[in-house]
Amino acid sequence: MTVTRISKITASSSKSFQAAVDEGLERANQTLRGITGIDVTGHTAKVKDGKVTQYRVTMNIAFVLDD
Question: Residues 18-21: contacts with CB within 8 Å, 24+ apart?
């Protein structure tokens, strides 16, 4: 039997939403084993002087628990 757990994280990047997803997944891989998927649940951005300065994503990361 396989049991999967979900962790919710928020990641950011000054480049793009995709870069924020990539950075969040890279960081999660340093701590979590057995990641099987992600579900991006939200996109937000920080704006300064009318320009986007930071892209943020919230995502659920699914991973299989060890036996």
Answer: 19/55, 20/55, 20/56, 20/57, 21/57, 21/59
